[in-house]
Amino acid sequence: MAASKRELQALIVLAGKIDPSLRKALAEANSKTKDLGQSTKLFGDLATKAWNAMKIGAAAGAVAIGAGFAYVAKKGIELASDLSEVQNVVDVTFGQNADLINRWAKDAKTNFGLSELAAKRFASTMGAMLKSTGIAEEHIVSMSTTLAGLSADFASFYNSSPEEAFEKIRAGISGETEPLKAWGINLSVANLEAYRLAKGIKVAYSQMSAADQVILRYNYLLEVSKDAQGDFNRNIVSFANQMRVLRTNFQEVAAKIMSGAIPALEQLLQKANQLAQEFLDDPQQIGKISDAISQTF
C-alpha cells in the first residue's frame, strides 16, 4: 500500500530534511490524488456493489449447496432402500445362486456402466420371467446376467438408456416382436423357424415347450446382435458412456452414505405409523384436536 501524505511528511521530519521542493512535490501529488480519488471512489462504489452481489451470490450458493445436499440425501435414501428391496427379489429368485448375482452386480459398473441396483434389478426381473417358463435353474443365472449386460451394450450401441434397452430385450424374450424391430431385430416366428432349421433343430417352434421357445429366442437374439455386444467397453471413453459411469458413481456414493441411516429411519417410520394408528383408533382424540384447530382459526 502507498504511504499517505502525512506518513511521508512524518518520515521526512524524522530524517531532519524538510525540503521546500519536496513540500511542493507533495502539494502537487495531493492535487493529483484528488482527481484520482474521484475515480477510485467510483471504482469503490462499483466494488462495494460487486461485493454485495458476491455476498448475495454466496448466500444463494449456500442455499443451492444445501439444497444439493438435501437432494443427494433424498436420492441416497431412495437408492439405498431400493437396493435393499431388490436384494430381496434377488434372494428369492435365484435362491442358492443369489451370491453369483451379487458378485456379478458388483462388477457391472466397470463391465457395463450399470449401477449395482440396475444390474440386480435387470437380472432379477429377467430371472423371475425365465424361471416362470420352467427353464432349469442352472441356466437362469447365465441367461439373466447375459441379457442384463446386453441391455447396457444396446444402450451404448443405439444411443439409448439401459432401462429402455432392457425393456425391449425383456419384451423380445417374452415373445413380443415390435419393441426390438425399432433396432432392426425381428424375433418373428418365421425368423425363428429359419434359425431353428439352420441350427439343425427338428422340433417345430409351435411344438416346443414354453421354456424351449424362450431359449430359442434367447439364442437367436444373441446371434443377430453380435455387432452391439461389447459396445460399452469398446466405447467406454465416449462422452455418453463416461456420463453414464459418472451418474452411476454419484448414485452409488449417495446410496452408500445414506445406507447407514436406513435402520434409524425405519424405526422412526414405525413409531410414526404406530402414533398415527393410535389416533385412528381413538376418534375422540381426533375430535378434540379438530375442535382446537377450529377455535384457533
Spans of at least 5 consecutive residues whose pLDDT stays below 50 are: 7-19, 32-37, 60-69
Q: Please tally the β strands and state the result.
A: 0
Tell me, rounded to a whole number, the average pLDDT: 76
Write down the secondary-structure element order.
HHHHHHHHHHHHHH
The percent of residues in helical segments reads over 70%
Query: How can the largest sheet be summarized?
Result: none
Shape: elongated
Number of helices: 14
Measure the end-to-end span. 64 Å
Radius of gyration: 35 Å
Helix/strand structural class: mainly alpha
Strand content: under 5%
Explain the overall architecture.
With 297 residues, the protein is mostly helical. The protein has 14 helices and no strands. The chain has helices at 5-15, 20-94, 98-106, 108-112, 116-132, 137-157, 162-174, 178-181, 189-198, 210-224, 231-234, 239-259, 262-280, 283-296. The longest helix is centred in the first third of the chain and has 75 residues, at 20-94. The protein starts with a helix and ends with a helix.
Compact summary:
With 297 residues, the chain is mostly helical.
Which descriptors would you attach to this protein?
single chain, mainly alpha, 14 helices, 297 residues
Sequence-ordered SSE layout with sheet pairings:
Blueprint (H helix, E strand, L loop, with lengths): L4 H11 L4 H75 L3 H9 L1 H5 L3 H17 L4 H21 L4 H13 L3 H4 L7 H10 L11 H15 L6 H4 L4 H21 L2 H19 L2 H14 L1
